[in-house]
Specification:
single chain, 379 residues, alpha+beta, conserved putative lor/sdh protein from methanococcus maripaludis s2 fold, Helix Hairpins, 6-stranded antiparallel barrel, 4-stranded antiparallel sheet, 4 helices, 26% helix, elongated
Length: 379
């Protein structure tokens, strides 16, 4: 009987040990990295392709007819306003000026004689020494002489202008293009009037076409002045074929302001014309395609989280946060625009909250977590 009791006791002890050995232990908390939600100023932008246009574009034209004698510039160079560009043979116009000056001298002599006769006979008509009719003739001759002087002076002025027009100067400062005529050609109105073209290259316009649904916002913002604008152009530095490698692409940027919004919307595209102005330190030419980014407004205290903290599920977005009990919680959010590596959160989070940025691969709601590291906000 004693042996049976001892055996039963041993079997119970072994059975209890086996039950203790197979009981599962609780998994350790998942290690995660968090980052604190921050609120900061967030500029909002609209990015569009743009085309550069010149503020001023002027055709250089001959205002008098004649043989082109000289050209004083290199095609494609930058010229200053007033710089001499072409010279037309002025000999015929110099002769016309001499002729006009001679006519003026003659008119002045005739005027002097007529004035003397008028003044000499003016007292005589009062005494009856000459008839009123003869005196009226003298007065008329004097007035005609005065008119002839004015006419001759106008002839001299016109002749001087024609002589001056034989020297063609740059009407604006800018980059001059190809000359359309060669030295020795007959130029002028009715012949070859346009000789070259000059475009102003700085400041430069850039034209963009925002969608019509942005018109009210842009117009309201421009009531307070112009809007900041960034212009960029990417150059391919490879020597042969075009390459997408970042090592051979160089990006050049400039800053400017959006200064003009057109008064109509193009119905075929539902866009409108807007124009910016910038100092052309890039050296771009009219008609060049550039990337334009216009700053619309600044959102104060915008809630920002790292982009890698944003998770997507069908139809919505969420982030992982930590509950007061130290467990992972799915927090739905509404996202806005991006700024660098950070995402603007419209709803779902408040400043100071913590979001999980690492260790979320196999995470489930309610999983116990422990913070292994807290990341610092990137500047």
């Amino acid at each position: 009987m004693r042996r049976v009791v001892i055996l039963c006791s041993a079997l119970c002890t072994i059975s209890a040990c086996k039950e203790t050995a197979i009981a599962p232990s609780a998994p350790p908390p998942t290690k995660v990295t968090t980052e604190t939600v921050v609120a900061r100023a967030l500029p909002t932008y609209i990015s569009l392709p743009g085309t550069t246009t010149s503020v001023q574009e002027v055709n250089v034209q001959a205002r008098v007819e004649g043989w082109l004698m000289q050209r004083h510039f290199q095609e494609g160079q930058t010229v200053a306003e007033g710089e001499l560009l072409y010279e037309i043979d002025s000999a015929p116009y110099d002769a016309q000026l001499l002729q006009a000056e001679s006519a003026l001298t003659s008119a002045k002599v005739q005027k002097s004689y007529a004035q003397t006769e008028f003044e000499r006979n003016e007292p005589l008509v009062l005494t009856g020494a000459i008839s009123k009719q003869d005196f009226d003739k003298l007065e008329t001759q004097f007035e005609q002489a005065l008119a002839q002087v004015v006419q001759a002076e106008a002839g001299v002025t016109l002749a001087m202008l024609n002589v001056g027009y034989c020297s063609i100067h740059a009407p604006i400062s800018g980059k001059i293009g190809k000359s359309t005529v060669d030295v020795g050609s007959l130029v002028g109105p009715g012949q070859q009037a346009t000789l070259a073209n000059i475009v102003q290259v700085s400041p430069m316009y850039v034209e963009i076409h925002p969608p019509a649904n942005r018109l009210i916002l842009i117009q309201s913002l421009m009531e307070g002045g112009s809007l900041p604008m960034h212009i960029s152009i990417t150059e391919n530095d490879s020597e042969s074929q075009a390459s997408a490698s970042g090592s051979v692409l160089t990006k050049h940027t400039a800053t400017g302001s959006l200064v003009f919004v057109d008064n109509t919307i193009k119905s075929s595209t539902s866009t409108f014309l807007a124009r910016g102005e910038f100092v052309n330190d890039l050296g771009v030419l009219p008609g060049q395609y550039v990337d334009v980014r216009v700053q619309l407004q600044v959102i104060n205290k915008a809630i920002m989280v790292p982009r890698k903290a944003i998770m997507q599920q069908p139809g919505s977005y969420y982030v992982w946060t930590i509950s007061d009990e130290g467990t992972a919680v799915v927090t739905p959010v509404t996202i806005g625009s991006m700024q660098g590596d950070y995402q603007h959160i419209l709803t779902g989070l408040k400043e100071g909250a913590g979001v999980l940025v690492e260790g979320t691969t196999n995470l489930r709601s309610g999983t116990e977590v422990t913070i292994s590291e807290t990341s610092e906000e990137a500047e």
